[in-house]
Amino acid sequence: MPAFARLTFLPEKTCVLMTEKQLILPITGMTCANCSATIERNLKRLPGVEQATVNLATERATVIYDPDVLEPEAITDLVEELGYGVATARAELPIAGMTCANCSATIERNLKRLPGVEEATVNLATEKASVVYNPAMLDVQAMKELVFDLGYQVIETEGEDEAAEVDAERQARQAELRRQRRLLITGLVFTAPLFLLSMSRDFGLLGAWAHAPWVNWLMLALATPVQFYVGRDYYVNGYKAIKNGAANMDVLIAMGSSAAYFYSLVVILARLVGVDLGHVYFETSAMIITLIRLGKYLEARAKGVTSEAIRALMDLRPKMARLERDGRELEVPVAQVRVGDVLVVRPGESIPVDGVVLSGISAVDESMLTGESLPVDKGPGDQVIGATLNKQGLLRIQATRVGKETALSQIIRLVEEAQGSKAPIQRLADRVSAIFVPAVIAIAVLTFLGWYFVADAGFTRALINATAVLVIACPCALGLATPTAIMVGTGRGARHGILFKNSEALERAEAINTVVLDKTGTLTEGKPVLTDVVVASGWTPPSANGATPEQTLLYLAASAEKGSEHPLGEAIVAGAQEKGLVPATPDSFEAITGAGVRAQVGEREVRVGRLGADLPPALQEVSLRLESEGKTAMAVSIDGVVAGVLAVADTLKPTSAEAVAALHEQGIQVVMMTGDNRHTAEVIARHAGVDTVLAEVMPDEKAAKVKELQGQGRIVGMVGDGINDAPALAQADVGIALGTGTDVAMATADVTLMSGDLRGVARALRLSHGTMRTIRQNLFWAFIYNIIGIPVAALGLLNPVIAAAAMAFSSVFVVTNSLRLRGYRFE
Predict the structure, then answer these.
(1) Which of 26, 193, 402, 725 is deepest in the core (most CB within 10 A)?
(2) Is 75 left (phi over 0), alpha (psi -120 to 50) or beta?
């Protein structure tokens, strides 16, 4: 952000040096000169603003202000309060070199200080920084330089190809794992003989020679490579942390191991001048570093497994596509496919990109994205999703979405954002982590002083106990407790077609005690279908050519309705076609408002519509029964004679009743909301098994009904699939959209069920419960470990080597516990 100085002369003839800053905001939503003038006028009214100009053509505001009086956030807030938006960009930075929660907190804190950064989160588990920033004020390179200056590395990628970025990051992670393994092996090679030599000497197993002066020098020779080669990272990272005003795990390890190493060095140097200071502890310093290196290696391996779900999704992307051009088939990289290209997909091949089928009939396996095991039939006009598997026939498709716009790329992005977000439950751990290391150092100092001056235990004992305090403390477990569980939980959900927008939604879902289901398209199929064909007794069909009376009645009614655009008429036509009938085109057609249709079909006059008083008693009973089942009954008259009754209904989805029962098993109350009349709604509700019916609710009243339920103290999850559900989804504590619905509903929702199967609601809530339970277990372990371990070490009841082993494996325990979610059962 440009800054410059101005000399301001006051009336008293004194002058004040004012530092000013310039802020450039890209603004969205301006449509005319009045918009820009309104923003400019209001910006100038802000205290501290020296100059403000808003350019409608460039859609930017340039503001010069005094940072001592005004924060840049206040300028952004004003623009948004006026009803306009400030354009932002998002950057994802893969970071290497973080070792504990203090590392991620340090990077996050410094990123937030950069001018133009609106939001920054650094996730220790995914080893990524996610930054929302103003591109007019800041670029990604500046963020990378900041991370580098803090002592960490940003993994560089070349080109814009998403797959190349993923491969580069994966290779960098694997290289880091290989480096950790190499350091671990080096540590073991030197530490194992050192430990055996020291312990054997202490237990008198080696004879008098083991106490010769040269043995101590041999121990120094074995310990030094471990201290300064294997443990180099702890010194370098610890120094950088302190230089940047923070202290992390590396500081604790460097202090603890150095205390043992340098004390032992002083002991053997003192003996050169005839002073015996006692025992050397080279094996302690080496064991501390090697055990912690072992723990970090195991942790890195385990963290790699936590992200395998997202890697599995990335691996689904086909590398090549078969492009049809000028009558020839060309095999090209998927990155070269453009919208509108025609592609050929053979049986057994993955569909390269999202598209629409031009020709061919096949069954497509979409289980990798939706979690549904049964293949889906596809034909001309049907949508297909990239990365799904063509099982049977050859398909010609036209690409509709490519690159980062495909459904798979958006799913990956959604999962990555969810994994990178912070759950509210993590706030306590973050607050503790911020003061953890300084507090531990203070406790170690008090431990030393207490043992040395109060207990009069001598310098060596005081130092050993203080060292134990430094190495037992583990901020890593606190930092990993929540994000690792979130990573595995959201990844597990993604593999089963359950997508959480962020970790806050995952946490809120656990508290849901009421689920509101929209009826149309959620509980039901969303379109009316023909359910019953009842022929009047005594009606003699015209010449039937071997057809049954029911077939003849349906054929004539469907032919009459063939010219209708009414959903009920379309349902009758579709029902006839499903039964193998081919409705004729009527010779004449008339829609009678509120009464149905009248048509001439061949030599017959056919009327289909509202039930009249002339309905025979037997058909009246049938009609009442059908309507009591929530169906719409319509009379069919042929040449003025009532020939029968047809019934149409929006039927329940096959899995709806099972889905509601699954919610009941979790103790959740189920509410159905619909615009239908109460009688029809209650019939549907009875069949589905829902507890409460909210009927005759207009689309614009849905959000108010959800708010009303919330006012009763309920935690509400709203499930819908249409545009008119979007306000209610936003109002609910957790909005859940079916993947078969509209993009608007899915964008508003906190959770998206890719399969459109209502049973996914109960699965999502179970997954939320399982993930939150794991997080609480992790946090309990992380806190109780430190709460018990640090006092025990301070009391002198813990050897530093045992303390180092415990510290090394505490974070491994947390990550391993999170990994149990990989096998979480949804049923």
Answers:
(1) 725
(2) alpha
Give dist(CA 431, CA 423) in Å, integer: 13
Nearest to 325 by CA among 301, 341, 339, 314: 341
Percent of the chain with pLDDT over 90: 34
And the tokens for 811?
Answer: 């974070």
Residues 6+ apart with CB under 8 A from 382: 356, 357
Write the single-letter amino acid at 735: G
Cβ 50 vs Cβ 75: under 8 Å? no
Report how far residue 789's alpha carbon sits from residue 807's, in angstroms, rounded to the nearest whole number: 9
- Closest among 826, 123, 240, 229 to 482, alpha carbons compared: 123
What are phi and psi for residue 509, nearest 5 degrees? -60, -25
Start-to-end CA span in the chain (Å): 54
427, with CB counted inside 10 A (0-12, 13-18, 19+), is exposed
For the chain, the C-alpha Rg in angstroms (whole number) is 36
- What are the structure tokens assigned to 745, written together? 């509903």
Neighbours of 655 (CB within 10 A): 15
Q: How far out from the chain centre does Cα 557 lie?
A: 51
Amino acid at residue number 759: R
**Matching residue, tokens 């930054």:** 131
Three-class HEC string of 575-586: HHHHCCCCCCCC
Closest residue by Cα to residue 2 from 65, 47, 91: 65
- Segment 224-268, tens digit of pLDDT: 999 999 999 889 888 877 877 767 778 888 999 999 999 999 989
d(CA 516, CA 633): 29
Closest CA to 1 of 108, 92, 75: 75
Q: Which of 341, 354, 518, 676 is catalytic?
A: 518
Instruction: Say how far apart CA 257 and CA 227 lie, in whole Å.
Output: 8
518 is catalytic: yes
d(CA 819, CA 817): 5
Cα distances (angstroms) measured from residue 415 to each of 312, 328, 482, 575? 12, 38, 16, 41
Query: Are the CB atoms for 385 and 413 separated by under 8 Å?
Result: no
Asked whether residue 3 carries a pLDDT value surpassing 70, the answer given is: no
| Segments of 620-676 assigned E as strands | 632-638, 641-649, 669-673
Distance CA 356, CA 353 (A): 10
Cβ count near 252 (within 10 Å):
28
**Count of residues for the chain?**
827
Band the pLDDT of 13: cuts 50, 70, 90.
very low
Residue recorded with tokens 């999962």? 415
CB atoms within 10 A of CB 269: 12
What is the residue-wise DSSP string for 520-539?
IIIIB-SS-EEEEEEEPTT-
Q: Helix 308-315 vs helix 407-420: angle between axes, to the nearest 10 degrees?
A: 170
CA angle, corner 648, sides to 644 and 652, nearest 5? 145
pLDDT in tens, 145-167: 899 888 888 887 554 455 555 55
> What does the DSSP 8-state code read for residue 740?
T
CA distances from 553 to 214, 543, 578, 644 (A): 109, 12, 15, 7
According to the model, what pLDDT value does residue 5 have? Answer: 44
Cβ–Cβ < 8 Å for 558, 572? yes
Per the DSSP assignment, residues forming a β-bridge with 6 are 18
Could you tell me the strand order of the sheet in which 128-133 lies? 117-123, 128-133, 89-96, 153-154
Q: In what order do the strands lie in the sheet with 514-518?
A: 498-500, 751-753, 734-738, 716-720, 514-518, 669-673, 692-694
Encoding tokens for residue 827? 């049923």
